[in-house]
Amino acid sequence: MVDADQTFVIVGGGLAGAKAAETLRTEGFTGRVILICDERDHPYERPPLSKGYLLGKDDRDSVFVHEPAWYARHDIELHLGQTVDAIDRTARTVRFGEDGTVVRYDKLLLATGAEPRRLDIPGTGLVGVHHLRRLAHAERLKGVLASLGRDNGHLVIAGAGWIGLEIAAAAREYGAEVTVVHRGETPLHSVLGPELGQLFAELHREHGVRFHFGATLTEITGQDGMVLAARTDDGEEHPAHAVLAAIGAAPRVALAEAAGLELADRADGGGVLVDERLRTSDPDIYAAGDVASFPHALFGTRLRVEHWANALNGGPAAARSMLGREEIYDRVPYFFTDQYDLGMEYSGWAPPGSYDQVVIRGDAGKREFVAFWVREGRVLAGMNVNVWDVTDPIQGLVRSGVRVDTEALADPHVPLESLVA
Ligand SMILES: Cc1cc2nc3c(=O)[nH]c(=O)nc-3n(C[C@H](O)[C@H](O)[C@H](O)COP(=O)(O)OP(=O)(O)OC[C@H]3O[C@@H](n4cnc5c(N)ncnc54)[C@H](O)[C@@H]3O)c2cc1C
């Protein structure tokens, strides 16, 4: 039974943490809610940092989850710019801030997110080497891209994942020269497989991006402390005025690990291990968002999902669990991207090796289609490219697990809804 004397503490003020705090209040929790974040900015959403905000199309105010006054209005005790550095599970306390403030919790949520992986090569200390996770990084990068565009400067991006490609698109819109160096043979291989990864390579080539596939950066060289070029393991050298590392993110598990909470295997993506109700190995501690590794009954595997929708829905799901609601978190994974004039949404989970067929509905050449990843006639995932309002039926197909007629699946005249038995 939850009552007004209880204190719920949330570590991490990203989307998952902020949405969890909101849900505690909308679900009627009247106890203390303490939200602690090491960033100085109020909780904000990260997708615009590599899209509208980076391009100067969205203003700064539009990225915040709530306006600053919202927190006090909802009696959320917000501690910004303060790091939680210890959890004492016996005393049920967390310690945070430079003065080592200690607060007791009845329930604790870890929403510590992820941090960008850094390049571990010579030259990363040079001026002009960047990564992107925070608002301040995006502010800085915006200035860098604008000046590269003005001066015909050259950006080398390490990594052709979502963030690398979105920044490539933004950089081209600013007019910068862009080379993307990527270990694989196609971009986004681990999510889209080779078939659809190629589509993104073509899109970027059409916009003037150069790719160097099958290579990794080995050194960034400089002059007078500034970036001059980026070298790859096959002996090539790309001129560069700036280098951006977009080589993925690692879940921020140090706090959980030091507290002795169980972690997921690295082979499964790592993260804090939680059950289907987002509870960690300690029944009073929960985890949600990028940091959580949860079992997904639909796919029969553990997933750690580094996407906006998982923070948006996982934070509230964890909050409801903290309140004792018996709710299983089994959302179909969903994410989106915008690059140039291509907008897409992806629902499901179908890494290479898990599917036996890719079915295309629509015109892939015109980049107006839906792709389905199918195994034995069952849809594992669907991606709509410049086709809208189909997320619900795609997720319905993924969730239903029904065998579909793949000819009907490929036929745009057959309503998707009619395929969900
Ligand atoms: C540039 C960029 C673009 C993206 N674009 C998309 C997109 O287009 N579509 C999509 O689906 N997803 C996108 N994502 C992913 C999405 O933003 C993340 O999945 C989401 O931010 C995860 O939210 P979170 O709350 O779990 O973690 P985070 O947003 O990482 O928030 C965690 C917070 O906790 C803080 N913290 C960590 N440890 C501590 C501690 N010990 N004490 C105090 N505070 C702590 C962190 O500093 C951070 O502020 C993008 C991500 C980035 C970086």
- Oligomeric assembly: single chain
How does the major sheet shape up?
Answer: 5 strands, parallel
Structural class: alpha/beta
* Poorly predicted spans: none
The number of domains is 3
Task: Describe the structure in brief.
The chain is an alpha/beta fold.
Task: Write up what this structure looks like.
With 421 residues, the protein is an alpha/beta fold. The protein folds into 3 domains: 7-115 and 250-322, 3-Layer(bba) Sandwich (FAD/NAD(P)-binding domain), CATH 3.50.50; 118-247, FAD/NAD(P)-binding domain (3-Layer(bba) Sandwich); 341-419, FAD/NAD-linked reductase, C-terminal dimerisation domain (Enolase-like, domain 1, 2-Layer Sandwich), CATH 3.30.390. Helix content is 24%, strand content 30%. It is built from 9 helices and 26 strands. The chain has helices at residues 15-26, 69-73, 135-150, 162-174, 189-206, 254-258, 308-322, 391-400, 406-410, and strands spanning 7-11, 32-37, 76-80, 84-88, 93-96, 101-104, 107-110, 114-116, 129-130, 154-158, 177-182, 210-213, 217-223, 226-232, 237-239, 242-245, 249-251, 272-273, 285-287, 292-296, 301-303, 334-339, 342-348, 357-363, 368-375, 378-385. The strands form 7 sheets. The protein has a 5-stranded parallel sheet. Strand 10, helix 4 and strand 11 form a beta-alpha-beta unit. 44% of the residues are buried. The chain binds flavin-adenine dinucleotide. Residues 11-17, 36-39, 46-47, 49-50, 83-84, 111-114, 132-133, 163, 252, 255, 289-290, 306-309, 311, 335-337 line the site of flavin-adenine dinucleotide.
